[in-house]
Design a protein that fits this description.
The chain is α/β, with parallel strands linked by helices and 192 residues long. It has a single domain, classed as Rossmann fold. Helices cover 40% and strands 13% of the residues. The protein has 7 helices and 5 strands; from the N terminus they run βαβααβαβααβα. It is globular and about 50 Å long. The N terminus is likely disordered.
Amino acid sequence: MTSGPESTPQPDAAPILWITGLSGTGKTTLALALAQALRAQGQRPLVLDGDTVRHLVEPDEAHDSHAPPLRLHRAWRMARMARWAAMQGIPVIVATMSLRHDVQDWSRAGPTPYAEVLLQANMELLRQRKPTLYGAPGQASPPNVVGLDIPAEFPRQPELRLPQNFAMDDQPRHLAQVLALWESLWPGRAMR
């Protein structure tokens, strides 16, 4: 999938930063904080959030469906949208699970600067924060949950692994690390 004109290096291509992790780990929160910090520097990133994109482009009856073929379709859609924007010079922050090695490999092999951030949280913390998704502590979870009964294909070598403890100092610390990673992807682009 990486042959053809879209895999040719593009001199004006912008970066793609993919923030991933299980549901409830804070992907959207971190992506929006990063976007706000970059906008304060004069950059204009596009945030592609999995839930938001799903609600924008899918019929209402599909919003709550998470069948495996639909999950795969959504992951590829996010990857293609991100590459399309980045090749036009629009920096992209992706916040979605899309825990698929084939999608990650395709994105990494593309013609744009690319990096992955993996937010990792203890399952017991996630159960406390999202009991309707993961099941309350000591109770069974609903079926077909990624990370429980559906294996999650976490990135093989993410540029950042951020432990998410949901402590007050997690967010500023994570944001500082992600900003440093962004600068390495697209150095000197403030006030662009």
